[in-house]
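Q: Structure tokens for this one, please.
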Amino acid sequence: MIGSQPASAEDRFRDLHQRTFADLLRFVERRVPADEAEDIVSTVYLTAWRRLGELPQDARPWLFAVARKTMANGTRGWLRRRALDVRLATVAEASRTDHSAGTAIRLDLQRAWQTLSAADREVLALIAFDDLTNEQAAVVLNCRRSTFTMRLARARKRLQAALEPAGSVTPSRSPNLQEQSWTKA
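A: Here is the predicted structure, written as tokens:
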């Protein structure tokens, strides 16, 4: 600075930084982890630079107040992120269900499906996969509704039998009784 000339904004800011940096850094380091302190102090001085014309004569308390507010904002942000992490973990935990039982059932169903004849698979598929009514499926297969209903019932029984574990006997059937050929669809 030369004699009576007013200091430029840069000179005023450099002087402020030189006089207050060490105190401000110690103030912040006592309140936050050391690796975050310099970032907060940098934010404080950035705010001071932007508002240089509004700074009071004794800017040190003002800088400490800005640092305190900056730390509070950081803490609030951390708490919001932490709350979001907790909510996301809860949602992820709820959506992370064990599908192993369902997988075993699907594998059993696939094996049973493969044991069925093509005609039985077609009858079941028209109802289960194509979402047709018995009347609509009968039209597709070019047969009467009663004929289709009988084929569907038999196909369901054969699928159920294929799904039953080996060696199990249903209470309504005896293992010695065999179906006669005229009952098969």
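A few notes: The chain has seven helices and no strands. The mean pLDDT is 81.
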